[in-house]
């Protein structure tokens, strides 16, 4: 092979992630036409959201995790509604039907979206709300609650980030490798997410079509970029100060963990116990990180038990 051919091949390899990304679709009004729920034009872009349950119920805002949009809560909504909660779900930027703005997906980025949305949907500033955060959404909910302790009635955390966190080796390598990490994630990130979705769908789940849902996410431009940006920013934060503030202000914190979770291991529960001894804690036997859609009955039972006890 000549030197020129080698250079051409090298250029093709380097450009491949960019070419793949450009071939993906973009979020458009046409794609949103048949989406459930509503859309709000916020300061950083359009956000997709849905209301579920009684219009006069106590408001619970649910915040999803790194890779699965708001549909990840499908198995929990009916139980929460039956408890009287009026549930607000929304897609974080870069996921679902929301926009894919550029920029670092850090604490300020996600808290701005949440604050903007609460205003846009008309929740009065003096109305108490419950927050329910899953995985990375748990970190976002914790940060908001620590800054707004007078507004948050209860904070429900499902396998929350902000303590101990073990990403997949490929994602970790992409996080720490700069430009090479961008290239690596662009080449192999889709494969990793499809593999994980297929594994979850093989077991008990209330979202059996998870692989096709993830394929839809991967078909849209900006999704992989958003995941890597969140990994490098929001998921790198240690939230000891925030949890200690919640304890100091006596905010009711309810935490639910998977016994077999390898992403947010139970060592995180030990840390939380040091930071907030009053936090209510439950471990779901045999559950992994996907416990929201593999073990929804146990999650709902835990919420009910906490509401009875506290």
Overview of this protein structure:
The protein has 310 residues and is an alpha/beta fold. Helix content is 47%, strand content 16%. It is built from 13 helices and 8 strands. It has an 8-stranded mixed beta sheet. Helix 5 links the parallel strand 5 (129-134) and strand 6. Helix 6 packs across helix 9 and helix 7 packs antiparallel against helix 8. The longest helix is centred in the middle third of the chain and has 25 residues, at 178-202. The protein is globular and about 75 Å long. The mean pLDDT is 95.
Sheet of most strands: 8 strands, mixed
**Widest sheet: strand ordering:** 1-2-4-3-5-6-7-8
Total helix count? Answer: 13
Radius of gyration: 20 Å
Which key terms come to mind for this protein?
310 residues, alpha/beta, 8-stranded mixed sheet, 13 helices, 16% strand
What layout of secondary structure does this protein have?
Layout: H1 3-22, H2 29-32, E1 38-42, E2 45-52, E3 58-63, H3 74-82, E4 85-90, H4 107-120, E5 129-134, H5 136-147, E6 152-158, H6 169-176, H7 178-202, H8 210-218, H9 223-232, H10 240-248, E7 252-258, H11 267-275, E8 280-284, H12 291-294, H13 296-309
Parallel strand pairs: 3-4, 3-5, 5-6, 6-7, 7-8
Antiparallel strand pairs: 1-2, 2-4
Helix pairs in contact: 1-7, 3-13, 5-10, 6-7, 6-9, 7-8
């Amino acid at each position: 092979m000549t030197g020129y051919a080698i250079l051409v091949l090298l250029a093709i390899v380097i450009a491949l992630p960019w070419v793949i990304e450009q071939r993906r679709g973009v979020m458009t009004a046409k794609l949103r036409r048949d989406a459930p729920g509503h859309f709000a034009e916020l300061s950083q872009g359009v956000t997709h959201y849905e209301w579920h349950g009684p219009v006069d119920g106590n408001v619970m805002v649910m915040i999803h995790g790194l890779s699965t949009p708001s549909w990840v809560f499908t198995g929990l909504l009916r139980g929460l509604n039956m408890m009287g909660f009026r549930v607000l779900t929304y897609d974080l930027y870069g996921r679902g039907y929301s926009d894919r703005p550029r920029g670092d997906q850090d604490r300020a980025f996600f808290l701005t979206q949440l604050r903007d949305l609460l205003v846009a949907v008309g929740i009065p500033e003096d109305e108490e709300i419950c927050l329910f955060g899953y995985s990375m959404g748990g970190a976002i909910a914790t940060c908001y609650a620590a800054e707004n302790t007078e507004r948050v009635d209860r904070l429900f955390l499902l396998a929350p980030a902000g303590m101990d966190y073990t990403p997949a080796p490929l994602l970790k390598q992409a996080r720490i490798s700069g430009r090479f990490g961008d290239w690596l994630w662009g080449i192999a990130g889709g494969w990793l997410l499809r593999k994980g979705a297929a594994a979850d769908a093989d077991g008990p789940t209330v979202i059996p079509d998870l692989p096709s849902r993830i394929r839809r996410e991967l078909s849209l431009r900006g999704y992989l970029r958003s995941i890597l940006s969140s990994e490098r920013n929001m998921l790198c934060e240690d939230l000891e100060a925030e949890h200690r503030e919640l304890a100091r202000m006596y905010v009711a914190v309810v935490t639910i963990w998977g016994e077999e979770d390898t992403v947010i291991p139970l060592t995180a529960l030990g840390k939380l116990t040091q930071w907030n001894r009053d936090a209510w804690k439950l471990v779901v036997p045999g559950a992994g990180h996907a416990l929201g859609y593999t073990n929804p009955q146990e999650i709902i039972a835990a919420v009910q038990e906490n509401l009875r006890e506290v």
